[in-house]
Every structure is written in C-alpha cells, then in structure tokens.
Amino acid sequence: MRSVNRMLALMIVFSLLTFILYLSEGQYVFSLVILSFMLVLISGFQEFGNTAYTFRIAHLYVGSILFSIAAGYIFLTFVFSIVNIFIEEEIYKVSPGDFMLLITGVYSIINVIYLRKVALKADKSKLFNDNKTCCH
Predict the structure, then answer these.
(1) Which of 48, 54, 68, 114 has a beta carbon 3.0–4.6 Å from 108's, enabling a disulfide?
(2) DSSP letter string over 82-93?
(3) Distance CA 11, CA 3 (A)
(4) What does the pLDDT average to over 103-126?
(5) Within a 10 A sphere around the Cβ of 57, how many other Cβ atoms?
(6) Which DSSP letter does residue 26 get?
(7) Tens of pLDDT, residues 74-102
(8) Between helices 2-25 and 28-42, what is the axis angle to 10°?
C-alpha cells in the first residue's frame, strides 16, 4: 500500500508542476485539462475504509492513462511537425510545460504497466483460490 501511496503522491507532484508551468506559459485551457486530470489523482487520497486501497489503485490507474494520452498528444504533435521541414516552416517547439508533461507521461506509462501486473496477479491468485475452495 505504501508504494501505491508513493506513486500517487509523485504523480500529484508531477501533475502540479505541469499545471503550474502551463499556467505560467499562458496556456490556460490546457492547464485546466491538466488540473482536471490532477483532480482524478487527488480524489484517490480521499477514499477511506476497507476498499480504499483498490480505489487508490483505480484513481492512479485512470489518472496515469489520462496523463499518458496527453503526453502522447504532445509527442505526436512534435513528431508530425517534423514534416514542416519539407514545406519550410518551423518545427513545433517543446515548451517547459510540454517537457514536464512528457516526463509525467513516461512515469504514467510505468505506473500503468506496474499496476496492470499487480492487479492481474492479484486477480489470478484470487480466482485460483476461489476455484480451489468451491470446486473440491
């Protein structure tokens, strides 16, 4: 549980830095998008009770997917802007907010892969234990 809390806290810190950078650059609409993604992560800390651990995993998983999509958008914008060389226009310049979002996106992908392995392993062991007790 501590590792999920640490991952969730680190994602909130990364998303807060990304939000502040976009806000300082004057990209208000995209900073609101980042803020809404950050609120998904923050709401994971508000879960209490017996199911709090699984809800935190769910909030971290969904928030990580959202940040991965946003980082993928920035990455693809940059990659497809390389075509602008052929039509003699400028390539998309990555801003500090974009760079921080790309870092957050890479960390988000790591989170998604880790959480899928942990969740699938827990589901398989639970399924195996349920079948073992009910069928024999």
Answers:
(1) 68
(2) GGGGTTT-PPPP
(3) 12
(4) 81
(5) 20
(6) T
(7) 999 999 998 888 888 888 888 999 999 99
(8) 170
- Residue pair 112/85 in contact (Cβ under 8 Å)? The answer is no
Write the single-letter amino acid at 44.
G
Q: What are the structure tokens assigned to 74, written together?
A: 């920035």
Report how far apart the first and last C-alpha atoms of the chain are (Å, whole number).
Answer: 33
CA dist 70 and 101 (Å) reads 8
CB distance 47 to 56 below 8 Å: yes
Number of neighbours of residue 59 by Cβ within 10 angstroms: 22
Structure tokens at 11: 């994602």
Amino acid at 1: M
The DSSP annotation for 46-112 comes to G--STTHHHHHHHHHHHHHHHHHHHHHHHHHHHHHHGGGGTTT-PPPPPPHHHHHHHHHHHHHHHHH
* 120 and 23 Cβ atoms separated by less than 8 Å: no
Q: Which residue has the tokens 């921080």?
A: 100
* Encoded tokens for 40: 């998904």
